[in-house]
Design a protein that fits this description.
This protein is mostly helical. The chain contains five helices and four strands; from the N terminus they run αααβββαβα. The radius of gyration is 19 Å and the shape is elongated.
Amino acid sequence: MVTGNATTLRRLERDLGQLVERHERARDVSEFSAYENDPIGFIREVLKGEPWERQEEIAEAVRDEPLVVVRSANAVGSRIGGVPDGSADAGHLLQQRRPLPSAGGDRPLRQI
């Protein structure tokens, strides 16, 4: 039992060390305040992405509207510059507004 406790303790120490490292590398959300009204700048400068024209329209709609519905295909990917969509930073930046994917027709709208 002592060996199991020692192994568990080492694992917890390792996990804590990794958590502290991630915390030290994390950015303060206030760093993104300059992008509050510039979602395209955020995508280009912070996420290192180059959005298509339609993606720019969607990003601006998310900034301007409380609810945005975007028709999309399945399995086309949801990453820009290696950062998953809906990241905490982007969510805070856009005041918790986010796109609502729509796979087909207006069916998801009726479910809201």
